[in-house]
User: What shape does this take?
Amino acid sequence: MRKYYPLIVILVVALDRASKWSIAAKIELNDSIPLVPALFGLAHVQHTGVAFGLFDDSRLRWEIDIAVLFSVLALIVLLTILMKKDYAIVPLGAGLPLMLGGAIGNLLDRLMNGNIIDCFDLHFNSGHCLYFNPADVAIVTGAILMASRILSANIFAVGTQGGNQ
Assistant: This one.
């Protein structure tokens, strides 16, 4: 059911772009607004790292170029997998376009701004824990869906093989 893949990708990219634009327009850079005190809030932060602001200490131009190259390679791999087999809209099929949309969203940020905009702020034990954005959520959700499908297929395959002996 490949016809749904572009729709999923477009929805993820549109949600990501709209969220980041809205946050950047309404919240000052490096500021946040608590929504659920000591747990969650909206924020406007920018970083040059990868998903969830990891490896944000990358300030050298070549490190940013490597991150862009990695993103492009990830996009190529995801597109190749998507086009190679006609996955039904099941966890594996839905996971790939979610990851692709998230990768495109963060890549657009990196190409347009030179950094990634994060707009959600997660707290733990009354302190900042993690900044993230809709693209990050799509990537992680897609990876979880894919992993759950792969693991469940392997569990059932092992169970079936054991019963046939």
The helical segments are 5-26, 61-84, 91-113, 134-163. The chain has four helices and four strands. The longest helix spans residues 134-163. The two ends are 35 Å apart (CA to CA).
